[in-house]
Amino acid sequence: MPIMLKNIPELSPNLQAFPFVKQLLDYPERFRVMVKKINGVSVIDCGVDVLGGWEAGVIFANICLGGLAKINLHWEDFAGLRWPAIEVITDHPVRSCMASQYAGWFVKKDKFSAMGSGPARAVLSSEELFIKLGYKDSSDISILCLESRKLPTEEAIDLILEKCGCEPNNLYILVAPTASMVGSVQIAARSVETGLHKLLGLGYDIGNIDSGWGISPLPPVAADDLIALGRTNDAILYGTTVQYNLQDEDERLKSIITQVPSSSSKDYGQPFRELFERYGNFYDIDPLLFSPAKVCLSNRKSGRSFWAGEICSELLKKSFELEF
């Protein structure tokens, strides 16, 4: 049965995210980004030919979440490892994470390809996920976030314009490589989203969930995108804790909680980069692995909370190449 998300204009992820886009457009030097016009579209480089930064990363992550979450950076203790952390709090978890932040649009045109996330996905709404959500954003503005080492080509931008059905002056594209300050922040900010996707994959009705709060270690910027791919995934799989508030039956929550954390996977316990190199294909890795390290389901109906999983600080130290 579809998880029906109502089309509420004031909760449009594109409209709610636009004020964050405006910050980057108005103050590019402050946030160490660069704005380019390609085919009349505003393309914001957040780490390809510029340095970017943590502040730009927080803005990028807010945009990915459709402006429907609060993000904080601070220091945290991860099972004995004191390290910078990113915290995501949202009272609209399905709308902000699944209808916006989830990287579900593979943009490919000729030689350009990149994973796309962010509010524009809800305008296109062609993914199977949106059939389950029963949702489409009617916004005239479309905002797309790309994880890429290159800026999109003119041909790729024409494709995005066609798919979104908007005018060039209403399309905004943000780009950041995996191995960049912005890349580290925006991927580590996917704690709540990763758990929701896992729950959805387990057949759980995520429509029961009304808020989410996640915290993840912020990976140090890697020397290349392959190493960064490993570090950003390890941060989620071995360092992230997420709490969800929901309403359900305790027995149902008890039956599913142990299946949610990354430790439920046969591939758990190895650095992600080693797994990626061993399998040779991202999609051959056990899908049960892609989940937060530690998960709490707090039932507002009964007042009870159910925990599973653990933080693995030793693996984080290895992945982040920390020397003490």
Give your account of this protein's structure:
With 324 residues, this protein is an alpha+beta fold. It has one domain: 2-Layer Sandwich (Methenyltetrahydromethanopterin Cyclohydrolase, Chain A, domain 2). It contains 13 helices and twelve strands. The chain has a six-stranded mixed β-sheet, with helices on both faces. A six-stranded mixed β-sheet has the order 3-4-9-10-11-12. Strand 11 (294-299) and strand 12 (305-309) form a beta hairpin. Helix 4 (93-101) crosses helix 9 (191-201). The longest helix is centred in the C-terminal third of the chain and has 15 residues, at 225-239. The radius of gyration is 19 Å and the shape is globular. The chain starts with 12 loop residues before the first helix and ends in a 5-residue tail after the last helix.
Summarize the helices and strands and which ones pair or pack:
Blueprint: H1 13-26, H2 28-31, E1 34-38, E2 41-45, H3 54-64, E3 70-78, E4 81-90, H4 93-101, E5 105-109, E6 112-117, H5 120-124, H6 128-133, E7 142-147, H7 154-164, E8 171-176, H8 181-188, H9 191-201, E9 209-217, H10 225-239, E10 241-246, H11 250-256, H12 272-279, E11 294-299, E12 305-309, H13 313-319
Parallel strand pairs: 2-8, 7-8, 10-11
Antiparallel strand pairs: 1-2, 3-4, 4-9, 5-6, 6-7, 9-10, 11-12
